[in-house]
């Protein structure tokens, strides 16, 4: 006797379809993407953290020359020029790495960004988990390579600056991460005519956030970026700040993105993403 299965709708239907076969149906591509995400994370952090280490080394050499002591962490810098150098290093590193891997894996390189992409449905749960693992391992490998390549101790682990307490650190990291994640969602995940130039906007956002955050928190904004250097150079009691803050920032940015989609933001300024500018001008003239 044939028995017809009961039809389900809504959330129950989605959960019913969510079985091991559907979850792992694209596992080969997920594994390949995760492997390349690992490579991209290594590229990003080798360039970015290498620049931070160069700034710290320069600061230490300058301090040694003047007998004032050396740099001890990413936040201890000799001048505003050092802060600018660190910010430029990380911003350009992300711009370059995202542009190189944008059409390969999306150039995520950050568990907070991966979380947002998962929440909006841009990536599935399997790829989300694999991406986070790849990013964390990539950060460890990049830090280990830098430790072996460069002289002196590795001093690129983010830490709270003088006078910054743990609560302030969490909220600074939350807001800075939300800006970065929102840039990724609006420039890369949201498709439009300027999406091809998303790496520039994302890199500039990270640069701007570093200008604000380096002195106060080291501008982690990325749990993998904070965890990798700590594995090879030692943990401190502030490590959890760089996990909780970025996670909250990811939720904040995703919530704002969902709100904008809900109100159909593209209807608020409809002429911003079109090609026929002449036609728009003529139509406006005709209505006068």
From TrEMBL:
Subcellular location: Membrane
Membrane topology: Multi-pass membrane protein
Pfam families registered for this protein in UniProt: MIP
Predominant subcellular localization, coarse grouping: membrane
Gene3D superfamilies with a match to the protein in the record: Glycerol uptake facilitator protein (1.20.1080.10)
Keywords: Membrane, Repeat, Transmembrane, Transmembrane helix, Transport
Cited InterPro entries: Aquaporin-like, Aquaporin_transptr, MIP
One GO cellular component term: plasma membrane
Chain segments annotated as transmembrane: 38-62, 83-102, 108-124, 129-150, 170-189, 196-220, 240-260
Coiled coil: none
Gene Ontology molecular function: water channel activity
Keyword Glycoprotein attributed: no
Recorded family membership: Belongs to the MIP/aquaporin (TC 1.A.8) family.
PANTHER family for this protein: AQUAPORIN TRANSPORTER, MIP17260P
Protein name: Aquaporin-like protein
Lineage: Eukaryota, Fungi, Dikarya, Basidiomycota, Agaricomycotina
